[in-house]
Amino acid sequence: MRVLFLAAAVLLVSPSFAQDAKMMLEQDAGRLAQMWDGVYDNANQVNEQERLKIPETAWEARRLKIFKKVDAPAFGPHVTYVEQYLGEPPTSVYRQRIYVHRADSANSRIVTDIYAFRGTDAEKVLGAYKDPSKLNGFSPANMDKLPDGCAVSWKSAGDSFEGVQNAETCSYAPPGMSEKVRLSDRIVLSPAAMTTNTKITRKNGSLVQGNALNLPEVSYKARPFNCFVIVRNPDQPNGYERYNDLAINDQGGEITITTKHKEPLKINVWMLNLVPRVAGARPTLMMYAKEENNKFERVGAFGSADATRLAVTSAFGEANCTLAR
Predict the structure, then answer these.
(1) What does pTM read for this prediction?
(2) Would 110 be classed as within a structural domain?
């Protein structure tokens, strides 16, 4: 009789428990989308590779990755637009996607489905992180979804998330390739950084993309700054030029100004919140300004990692940057 009573109690409680578990997963899916929102750059890692004597065959290319939480109800409640760049500085776009985060209560996990743009659609939506209206009209019906086996499977780990793509289940033919490849990745997303270990291999096991030493790529979340630059210029009536509302970030962000001198100067301002890979060394916010043709010496300013303003002065003038609100 007692066994029957307990069984009946379990039946009564289980639907509510399952509903609560699903609700928690939905909340985590929203928290994942919110946490991922931002600009990430591996400038710290790239900056340190030579000093740490990492073999050049295992050097990471410079990458800037933008993840923008967008309102796109055709896909679901938790949607991220992705736009990624390569180069030094990273100005060449190489990847655009739609990520859809959802609860998978049957497997007690969060899943991110990945959608690719078709044909020239990627060009049409370039910059959608600044103007999400460019995504109007897009839905799962007019995009290419990666196979279900390529979805990222997530679990919450305190204030972070850990995600996995499995090469055993993720097989697809990327644009420009006739043969299928296998994709694996391990992602750790925290409020401050994103660590990935992406590997793409052919059927025979040869590497298409990935780190030769299996080292993870570390990209820190960038803080946006707003700058003004004042340049001395006797060729101007008031003796100087002023440039306002210049956007930069603290993960390798840079701006370049071409002045109005009779022989124009090129003033470059660069900023990095350095996270040293040396025990005991303190993170430091750095900013440098220079003239690209070396007409003035490079000057720098340094502050704590959480500094909200840096400024440098030189023979050319002044560069002043403040954390954007």
Answers:
(1) 0.90
(2) yes
